[in-house]
Amino acid sequence: MAFALLDQIRSIFDGDPGVRKVADDPVLSAELLMLFRMILADGSVSESEMVAFRRICKDAFGIAETSIDSVIEYLNEFGYETNGSQAIALFRDLDIERRKQLARHMAEIAKADSQLAESEVRLLRRTLDLLDISPVDVVKPEG
To answer: Which CDD domains does UniProt cross-reference here (predicted)?
Structure first.
């Protein structure tokens, strides 16, 4: 209880820890922006896509649930500075598993609303091409 209160007080003075984590890691920022672009690719934001996004933030990147709204706000405010091509460029030099992880996360969000729009397919296909990843790698289990 006392630690939670201290964390809240510290976040008021230091900023949200989840936002700091994203702001301090350009690759993580780029990945979250690409995931957000996938959410927006079909022209609407579904609750199931946001649930998938929140789960990925928490499970894959260790962003606390209490920070996710602030992270989304940060991405909305500062994401305009980075376009999709710039975001993808940060991934080209990363190892293949990290690139596959981005593609899997994008596919997870695209499928979250049970409707795979053509615009989502195009965005995913273009991303796979730019990252030099086979579509087979996206559907295969990690490992």
So the answer is: terB_like
